[in-house]
Amino acid sequence: MSSTAAHPLSTPMHNTMASPIVQAAAWLRSATFPSERPLINLSQAAPTAAPTEQLRREMARIAIEDDTAHQYGPVLGLPDLRNEIASQWNAHYHGDITSNDVAISSGCNQAFTSVMSTLCAAGDEIILPSPWYFNHKMWAEMNNVTVAALETGPDLLPDLQRAAKLITPRTRAIVLVSPNNPGGAEYPAELVTQFYALAKAHRIALVIDETYRDFDSRTGVPHYLFQQSDWRETVVQLYSFSKAYRMMGHRIGSIVASPARLQQVEKYLDTVTICPNQLAQKSALWAMQNLSDWVAEERLEILARREAVAKGFEGLKDKGWVLRGCGAYFAYVEHPFDMPSTELVPWLLENASLLVLPGTAFMPQGHKDAEKQLRIAFANADLAQISQLFDRLHQIEL
């Protein structure tokens, strides 16, 4: 006889917030849009286009000709890919990284969860600048790790003095994302160095997620972390191949950390996925070696969209809109309406065919500003759609 009683659910998992991306997808399933006002989806920070044709042809070739692409591989990733990352990162950061400092993961989210699992146990604490990337917060909740919210200023940059006051004996890491998700802010190199010094002084980790590194508007070295002689004692860097090479569904990311840290990461990865996807790794290696010019063109296109978004919000100032941050894939804004963001987002979907995310997805529960904020992920909108976005925002009267 089958039982109708529900299976027990762990309290941390029950208390973990739901993904706003999942909620947004649910809204779309029941939504319809008039032909004269098609949907502009500004909710998800991942490319919707397929990889370039050259890369797809190489993927097909590997799948057909390379039998090892279908077998288990090293838990920490293919040696050739780890070598290539170390080499290119050293050129980019003027750093001191070896292949033994590099591991490959099944996407950047897994890079984060694997590293944090080596740093934290239930009851420990991490510091996240707010607004934060919601999956970072979700991992902490489902593992009973306390998040100390580091409130950012009007420019969305984290404050060093505020961070220092949040450190307790249970603090295990400070997590930075630059260019930032959701805010778009690019953290100045000097500020990142100051956070490195703070983390080092307190013997905690500085975890820097650079998923959107390839779309930084700045030229030159974005930070000096890998130029520090003892960076391995403090620094962990995370990266994603999803954005630069449009390899979202292939789930491939990387970790740069000390070999001692990666030995512990290896236990996690061996338990969760055994090894990263072999086809994805071989494809990523080819992409790194052959698509630098293409990535540079993609960067310029994203920067052009960023400029158009910034200009568009300049024209909305008189209506009360405030652009808090704009960079990488994101604009983070304050809206002028009395309606809270959690109600405004479905209203915009129904009445303006615009899908964005509310600030409540990125802020502590009950934060006074969350209901005035929206995240707009513009990377998948071309310049014509960005123009339509602002035409529709101009027309809103609430």
Description:
- The protein has 398 residues and is α/β, with parallel strands linked by helices.
- It folds into two domains: 11-50 and 294-395, Aspartate Aminotransferase, domain 1 (Alpha-Beta Complex); 53-291, Aspartate Aminotransferase, domain 2 (3-Layer(aba) Sandwich).
- 41% of the residues lie in helices and 15% in strands.
- It contains 14 helices and 13 strands.
- It has a seven-stranded mixed beta sheet with strand order 2-8-7-6-5-3-4, sandwiched between helices.
- Helix 8 links the parallel strand 5 and strand 6 (205-209).
- Helix 4 runs parallel beside helix 11, helix 5 (108-119) packs across helix 10 (259-272) and helix 12 packs parallel to helix 14.
- It starts with 10 loop residues before the first helix and ends with a helix.
- 42% of the residues are buried.
- The model has no long low-confidence stretch (mean pLDDT 95).
